[in-house]
Specification:
By secondary structure, the chain is mainly alpha-helical. Helices cover about 40% and strands about 10% of the residues. About 10% of the residues have low confidence.
Length: about 150
């Protein structure tokens, strides 16, 4: 992924392992990248990878000013259920989580679940996520500010 992101014109610092080892713990590597984002959340972004992306995002979200979102594939059709009846007319595409994570939540870390996403899909999603901008709407600004204070 590093060569691909560089080909898009982005400066890249690889904070990962030298090579894959089954016994590596993501908790040893994720902090390397997210500490940089935590220190400069407005100007830094990180792409983190794991089997599901979930544990990696959990580690990332422990750091101040870090808002990690997880992507593990395009949206699948929902089963009709009263609980989700308000979603019955939802027509948006499969990359909503990527778009909304940037536009509404100003996510600065993208965690990808490698067990669920092909390399081709990952490239498309990374390109989209890196290009998207936060809308800066007052309601989103307010909510993001509250994220940092909710556990204090």
């Amino acid at each position: 992924m590093v060569p691909y992101v560089k080909s898009l014109g982005y400066e890249v610092e690889d904070c990962g392992t030298e090579s894959f080892k089954i016994d590596d713990d993501y908790t040893d590597f994720i902090p390397r990248a997210v500490k940089k984002v935590s220190a400069d959340p407005q100007n830094s972004r990180a792409l983190i990878f794991g089997g599901s992306g979930q544990g990696e995002a959990m580690v990332a979200n422990r750091f101040p000013n870090v808002r990690a979102t997880v992507y593990y594939g395009e949206k699948k059709p929902l089963h009709r259920c009263d609980l989700f009846s308000c979603l019955k007319n939802w027509k948006r595409g499969g990359n909503d989580i990527i778009t909304l994570s940037r536009e509404h939540n100003d996510a600065n870390v993208l965690s990808l679940g490698a067990r669920f996403v092909s390399e081709n899909e990952a490239q498309k999603v990374v390109k989209l996520w890196l290009q998207l901008k936060f809308t800066g709407e007052a309601r989103h600004e307010r909510r993001i500010a509250k994220i940092e204070t909710v556990t204090k």
